[in-house]
Design goal:
Elements lengths: L1 E5 L4 H12 L3 E6 L13 E4 L16 E6 L6 H6 L1 H21 L4 E7 L24 H20 L2 E7 L1 E3 L17 H11 L3 E4 L11 E2 L1 E3 H16 L6 E6 L5 E2 H12 L5 E4 L14 H7 L8 H16 L1
Parallel strand pairs: 1-2, 1-4, 2-3, 4-5, 5-6, 6-11, 7-10, 8-13
Antiparallel strand pairs: 9-12
Helix pairs in contact: 1-6, 3-4, 5-7, 5-9, 7-9
The chain binds uridine-5'-diphosphate (UDP).
């Protein structure tokens, strides 16, 4: 069964392709390589294509796809404030073009990679976030993802497309075989930044220590990328077997949170080396706490984030860092 994976050359997409292949699917990667790497496409065919260019869809029009997993998008929140046009063109226009392709080719099963950023700043962030919580994204990035969720709902109602929307919390870690991992340029994410600081004997910048949290630094819910990949394949199988509703929404997180300082300590503990840091001013738009409630994914998909403890996230990220940088 052929599955179209947009953004399949990226960090999360490549882990999903590996999991698809392991489960007997045939992933076909469609990626413009703006943030992905050809060398990450190891488990299926690669087609260079840009979702913004309708003519690029000609390259895949003869292939019979059983489903689509749509990840291709810009993801860096800070960048979305500087260049919202880029985000709306790539994330929204690109998704509409893809949905048109799906409608015209009568593909019924669709998985969309969304984000916890669709929820925005909550009035009470002491409670884990459930899928039905109020959605008021702050950043152009979060808004672009919520717009696509809404468009997808119309496509489902009117054209009969069945979907799973997965809202990721903090994707992290790397494949346990160390074949693929996180490689953003520039790297902005906490775990790879702390590892880099540890190896290079540099200071990690901690963005703010005046949040209402136990140590004043932001708390996040880190979920291992291979756990994310597993959820996608479980969702896809159920969509194909008609074992889900038409419209499905799942948070994907670990259900636990760690502060920035706790992540730094986890890296220190793994390497048995003190990682130095300095406080700098808060990063614009950072909510103090983001914690998922993942009961729905556990119950309906029979999914557990079994690789998502912080020790395993740090270990696999570190192995990947060393493979690439030493
Ligand atoms: N962070 C930090 N220093 C860094 C990178 C991130 O203090 O070099 C903080 C950031 O402010 C946030 C948390 O670490 O509170 C996770 O940030 P990341 O960019 O990894 O993911 P996000 O939560 O923005 O999706």
């Amino acid at each position: 069964m052929k599955i179209l994976v947009t953004g399949g050359a990226g960090y999360i997409g490549s882990h999903i392709c590996k999991e698809l292949k392991k489960n007997g699917f045939d992933p076909i990667v469609f990626d413009n390589l703006s943030n992905g790497y050809k060398k990450f496409v190891k488990w299926g065919k690669f087609i260079k294509g840009d979702l913004k260019k309708v003519s690029d869809f000609k390259k895949i029009k003869k292939i019979k796809f059983k489903g689509v997993i749509h990840l291709a998008s810009n993801i860096e929140v800070g960048e979305s404030y500087k260049d919202p046009t880029k985000f709306y063109l790539n994330n929204v226009t690109g998704s509409i073009n893809l949905l048109e392709f799906i409608r015209l080719n009568k593909i019924k099963n669709f998985i969309f990679s969304s984000t916890a950023a669709v929820y925005g700043e909550l009035k009470d962030n002491s409670k884990p976030i459930k899928e039905n919580f109020h959605k008021e994204p702050i950043s152009p990035y979060g808004k672009s993802k919520l717009f696509v969720e809404r468009i997808l709902e119309d496509y489902s109602d009117i054209y009969g497309i069945n979907f799973c929307i997965f809202r990721y919390f903090n994707a992290s870690g790397a494949d346990s075989d160390v074949e693929i991992g996180e490689s953003h340029i520039p790297e902005t994410h906490l775990v790879p930044n702390v590892i880099n600081a540890c190896e290079m004997n540099k200071l990690v910048k901690v963005f703010g220590n005046n949040y209402k949290t136990k140590d004043g630094t932001c708390m996040r819910d880190y979920v291992h990328v291979s756990d994310l990949a597993e959820a996608h394949v479980k969702g896809l199988k159920k969509l194909i077997k008609n074992n889900l509703k038409k419209k499905n929404y799942f948070n994907l997180g670990s259900g636990k949170t760690y502060s920035v300082l706790e992540v730094i300590n986890a890296v220190s503990d793994y390497k048995k080396k003190k990682v130095k840091f300095k406080y700098v001013k808060n990063r614009f738009g950072d909510p103090s706490i983001l914690m998922s409630n993942i009961d729905r994914a556990k119950k309906i998909l029979n999914w557990t984030p079994k690789r998502s403890n912080i020790e395993n996230i740090v270990k696999t990220s570190y192995q990947w860092y060393l493979k690439n940088n030493i």
